[in-house]
Write a structure and sequence with these properties.
By secondary structure, this protein is mostly helical. The chain has helices at residues 4-22, 27-39, 51-54, 64-69, 81-108, 122-130, 132-160.
């Protein structure tokens, strides 16, 4: 298995090639997704002491349950599914934190919540998912994951064939 630095170098070196050949609808979305996928939402998030998890600094604890739920080279190393599991996991963590803050607010100052209305507009939610930035971001995120997984496969094969140590 390739080291974290190797993944970073390979992913970053393939970014210009990906942008050139794919010509995404939204360059900033694609590059953002690719960079975030390379450095923060890597398939190696299922290892607690991995480089991508250490980059989360004080928020690293968020990934501890994820490392206990998913084994290394399991779901996280499946193209497309791995990215979406990590995104859904993060959304779940954010919603849980938001609900916890609402509960604390209710305990401390219950009248404060009466001033706010919490409604979800599904039309705007689906619009966000169809937006060119979001689509390009997701494509960049998935592509960075595919490059990571391909690097692992090539490195493991080369090691098995004793081409590298």
């Amino acid at each position: 298995m390739a080291a974290g630095r190797t993944h970073d170098i390979i992913n970053l070196s393939l970014l210009p090639v990906a942008v050139y050949y794919l010509q995404p609808d939204n360059f900033s979305g694609f590059i953002s997704g690719y960079i975030i996928g390379t450095f923060f939402l890597s398939p190696d998030n299922d290892i607690y002491h991995s480089k991508p998890n250490r980059r989360w600094k004080i928020l690293r604890f968020i990934w501890y349950p994820y490392t206990k739920i998913f084994s290394h080279r399991g779901v996280s190393h499946l193209p497309v599914l791995g990215s979406f599991f990590k995104l859904f996991y993060l959304i779940f963590v954010l919603i849980t934190a938001f609900l916890f803050l609402l509960f604390l607010t209710y305990l401390i100052k219950p009248d404060l919540l009466k001033k706010f209305s919490f409604e979800i507009d599904l039309n705007s939610t689906f619009f966000i998912l169809k937006h060119p930035f979001t689509v390009s971001f997701l494509i960049g995120l998935v592509l960075s994951e595919i490059v990571h997984i391909a690097t692992d496969m090539l490195y493991s094969t080369a090691k098995r064939l004793k081409l590298i140590r």
